[in-house]
Specification:
- The protein is an alpha/beta fold.
- It has two domains: 3-139, no CATH class; 144-386, Metallo-dependent phosphatases (Purple Acid Phosphatase, chain A, domain 2, 4-Layer Sandwich), CATH 3.60.21.10.
- It has ten helices and twelve strands.
- The strands form two sheets. The chain has a six-stranded mixed β-sheet, with helices on one face. It has a six-stranded mixed β-sheet with strand order 6-7-8-9-11-10.
- Strand 7 (266-272), helix 8 and strand 8 (302-305) form a beta-alpha-beta unit.
- Helix 2 (38-62) packs antiparallel against helix 3.
- The longest helix is centred in the N-terminal third of the chain and has 42 residues, at 65-106.
Length: 390
């Protein structure tokens, strides 16, 4: 990316951050008529919180991890709290607009208008604080195992009960470290998995920065192997270096290819494709569904690992029995999932179209704000069964 584009991008981010924080200042501090010295204290606090967002993204380049982590937590928690506050305030704008129209017609006095501004500001701030606390607790609590059964027509009797564990969107980085990874590995190893699939967005940082935190994944136990496909965030963090590192610690990257895995004389195909956006980064990267499935036995079931659900139409055309994906985080912070639906066909859960199915995990970690609201993290245990009558 050229210097000009970087400067333009930074300019847009700075301008947007300023505009949003000015709006927050106007609605939470100016309009309610907050008295001194609270007005000044609140204004300075809002400025510092605004600055914490770019600071949380830059401290990793200039400070040791020990000092960078607390700054990152402040910035990312505020990012989530800011989003919730904005959503609540925008909802309140409808009531405010209706009241202003009413006040104009009925000549309501200024005192009542000020009271409405205070109620809206106080209500939005209180609800945002409560939701933020719930969201942080939901994100940092131990990740639970979500169990589901998927029935496949082509599944041989000998593979009944095959256990596939999916991890996705762990986002090891600024606020997720080695302790989190070790806890995940311990839980996976207690599930007696036949196959473990990691469907992208594992990290947010370089191998040099995060290799030690990710290394425990090499201790995952699975009877038929642990497989990995890239997500978009791998390409922001040095995908080739990470692919080499993961192979070194015992994971098998699947890059537009498939493997045949056998149990009790029967077998299943596991295929994987590069992330949907990988072609933008060159160096031979890019999703290729045809190549991934070329030469497979059509009489045997195939499970496709693809980071983004948007691959599903191609997967169906190629006769994929089950696609497992992530990327969406299940929306992560309600109501963000409604925006996700604009660019992804599915946000979470199991869906069937014809003979093909897709499961979209809500993710094992989180990205950005350490918050989850109405979209709990998961380690997914999928047990495969033969569809009755098949």
């Amino acid at each position: 990316m050229s210097l000009t584009r970087v400067l333009i991008f930074l300019g847009i981010i700075v301008g947007l951050t300023f505009a949003l924080h000015y709006y927050l200042w106007a609605r939470l501090i100016r309009d309610p008529g907050l008295p001194e010295p609270w007005r000044q204290i609140a204004t300075v606090s809002l400025i510092l919180l605004g600055l914490s967002i770019p600071a949380s993204m830059l401290v990793w380049r200039v400070l040791p991890r020990t000092f960078a982590i607390p700054i990152a937590w402040v910035g990312y928690v505020w990012m989530g709290a800011m989003f919730l506050t904005l959503v609540l305030l925008w909802g309140g704008e409808l009531a405010r607009w209706g009241w202003v129209k009413y006040a104009h017609v009925m000549a309501v006095d200024a005192g009542r208008r000020d009271f409405l501004a205070q109620v809206l500001a106080g209500g939005a701030a209180t609800m945002a604080l409560a939701l933020s606390g719930w969201g942080v607790w939901s994100a940092v609590r131990p990740v639970e195992v979500k169990r589901l059964t998927v029935r496949l027509k082509k599944l041989p009797e000998a593979l009944q009960g095959l256990r596939l564990v999916q991890l996705t969107d762990m986002h090891v980085g600024p606020t997720i470290g080695r302790n989190f990874v070790e806890d995940i590995v311990s839980k996976v190893n207690g599930l007696d998995a036949d196959i473990v699939a990691i469907t992208g967005d594992l990290i947010d940082g370089s191998v040099e920065e995060l290799g030690d935190a990710v290394r425990p994944l090499g201790r995952i136990r699975s009877k038929l192997g642990t497989y990995f496909v890239t997500g978009n965030h791998e390409y922001y963090s040095g995908a080739d270096d990470w692919l080499a590192f993961l192979f070194e610690i015992g994971l098998r990257p699947l890059r537009n290819e498939h493997v045949e895995l056998g149990v009790n004389g029967a077998s299943i195909h596991v295929a994987g494709v590069d992330d949907w956006t990988a072609h933008q980064f060159g160096n031979g990267h890019g999703a290729d569904m045809t190549r991934a499935l070329q030469g497979r036995d059509d009489t045997k079931p195939v499970v496709l690992l693809a980071h983004q659900p948007v691959h599903f139409d191609q997967a169906r055309e190629h006769g994929v029995d089950l696609q497992i994906s992530g990327h969406t985080h299940g929306g992560q912070i309600f109501p963000f999932g409604f925006l996700t639906r604009l660019v992804q066909p599915f946000v979470s859960g199991l869906h069937k179209r014809g003979d093909s199915q897709i499961y979209v995990s809500s993710g094992t970690g989180y990205w950005g704000p350490p918050m989850r609201i109405a979209a709990p993290a998961e380690i997914t245990l999928i047990e495969l069964e033969r569809e009755s009558g098949a």
